[in-house]
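Lecture notes, unit on protein representations.

Consider one protein chain, 343 amino acids long.
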Amino acid sequence: MPEATTESGVYVDPAGEFTRDQRYIATRITRDGRDGYPVEPGRYRLVVSRACPWASRAVIVRRLLGLEDAISMAIAGPTHDKRSWTFDLAPGGRDPVLGYERLQEAFFKRFPGYDRGITVPAMVDETTGEVVTNDYPWITIDMSLEWGAYHRDDAPDLYPEALRPEIDAVNEVVFKDVNNGVYRCGFAGTQEAYDKAYTRLFDRLDWLSDRLADQRYLVGDTITEADVRLFTTLVRFDPVYHGHFKCNRQKLTEMPVLWAYARDLFTTPGFGDTVDFDHIKRHYYEVHRDINPTGIVPLGPDLAGWLTPHDREKLGGRPFGDGTPPGPVRADEVVPPEHTPLR
């Protein structure tokens, strides 16, 4: 997860406002291979944690576009230390394809002495074992734009050309005020910094509620990249951000429009079936010990509400546009039934 931490594992900056380190590896995987990494099915491994909202975007987009056979996926455990994410879920604690215990090994293989965050999602070249990129905004965009030859039949267009300027504009403000805004609340080191972040977050959530009151999706009448990016924050709101990050003006369940919107997406194939609430809670409450020193993971909230009727169909819209829903989740990528209300 792209979080800023010190060598001691501290996330909160006592000086005040949380500032995210956004120095990612800018290499891209493209059709023309201009950065040295051409699109090639079976060559790259997407490393994720289901706990991380940025990684979850890539999991959703990969599934919606049907890229499972073209891009393999390694799922790291829900927690990490100051060194790296680990493959503790895999047999023997090593990723069976890369042979690594830690994602850190792929970063050091390409950049010995790498001194920035070891973050997910990351694309790793299976032929060399080297990380290619962890530049998460481009990973999902490039899945749409560069990997088109390997999309499933009737895959949706998540980044339609005519809507890209509007999608980009929405993504920019949602990132600043919501996706990153919850972290600016949670990792604020002063009351002033927290107050500022809190106000900015809920002002933007109110703006989103107004925008979505009369339209089913954020941009246009189909699911786009913008919906994916907002969903992964909303689905974590009540389990972690409301309490753990003090984003507590209201719960998501108390914001009628956003709650219905989130439930609509959750019950759409490709969204809720990728969500692991157990991993989400364990990550935030166990890793952020300067916020939650005991490491106790709360048992709630009750997840049954995610499956209640949302009534968003009355707003129209076509979830997949001219495409179709993805098929069943691959057997080796199914979220454990005890970690989700979807059974």
